[in-house]
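Appendix B, example 12.
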Amino acid sequence: MKPLQNKCFKPVLLLIFLAIGFLSSRLHAQEINQTFFDSIRGREVLIDFVTRDGLQNSEFTEFYQNEYQAYEIDEATKNQLKDKLSGYDIVIILASWCSDSKTQVPRFIKLLDTVEFPDEQLLMIAVDSQKQASGLDVTVYDIQRVPTFILYKNGSEQGRIIESPRKSLEIDLLQLLQ
């Protein structure tokens, strides 16, 4: 029985490693934490793929640090989330010029940190005033408002939190996972 289980398991692992390698090579080919002059805003904004480092070292910095530190996560809900998030991928579409992004993205990242959500399963994309990216086609995400937090499982969208949570990030996220 073990040899058969191992044979079935290896192709799955191979697919996972190929997907991670593909995403990683796309991120390396694409500049990360770029800024772009947004003529509508009249200032530099983050654009395309961003990381925590980009959020912590840009116009977003002060908001990121303040919101991350101040956000108090409901412990009971957090404990329910920890196991339920296993196997999910999350895409965050944000805008460094947007007040809701400046508030909700740091809070969401703190929530992910407290449930030990793997960084490699999180993708963040910054958009301009027209909700476009410069080097990426974000139309596939059908973004109407930012930030938008999208949950995927096995490549299929499972739900979204758009702009601001209805109750709280952790309660809204838990409802999406049920």
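The longest helix spans residues 2-29. Confidence is low (pLDDT under 50) at residues 1-22, 24-28.
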